[in-house]
Amino acid sequence: MPTPQGPRGRLIRRMFTAAAAATLLLVAALSQQAAAAPIGSPVQSQIDAALAASPGGTQINENQISWEDGAVILTIPLPGERYALGPGEEVGASGTHDCDYTFTCLYEHEQFEGRRLDFSKCGVIYDLGNWNFNDMASSYHNNQSGGARTTVYNWEGSWVRIWITSAAPTWSSNVGEDKNDIADGIKPC
Ligand SMILES: [Ca+2]
Prior knowledge:
Blueprint: H1 6-15, H2 18-36, H3 43-53, E1 58-61, E2 64-67, E3 72-75, E4 103-109, E5 113-119, E6 126-127, E7 139-143, E8 151-155, E9 159-164, E10 170-172, E11 185-187
Antiparallel strand pairs: 1-2, 2-3, 3-5, 4-5, 4-7, 6-11, 7-10, 8-9, 8-11
The structure holds calcium ion.
The site of calcium ion has 6 residues, from β8.
Keywords: Signal
């Protein structure tokens, strides 16, 4: 979150205490997130928004979109569900790292909750902003074949690595406070 620049920024900094400024930043962050993925909005409207934001996708069922012939799949939790589950997927007892074999997945929230993005193509860095998923990833599951490792990046004018997974299969239910909600790019393998 950049600090306000210029005369208006200096005025703002004078006007508010550090605590008030922190609150403003939090509100701005929350409203930015709400704009990207309206909480509680119908699944189909989220699907429509994702299709519009990232052309070339195909809705493959009620709550999933596929791009690049299935190399990228977005799954949106169904109403009342904390987990993004595709057809036939079930929730484990205490959260579930449920990325399909040969894919590496990012989850919107810790404990593998919220929207899920699945990737399976090597050699490219995907911009998570294409799926309104920048600054959101909180947990992951790398379930690719052959011990592949996934690299995740923050955008700081260039791609800056924030984590690389262990050899698949591997997962994290919580990437940690310093890495939470900052990822902007992923190199699946
Ligand atoms: Ca970021």
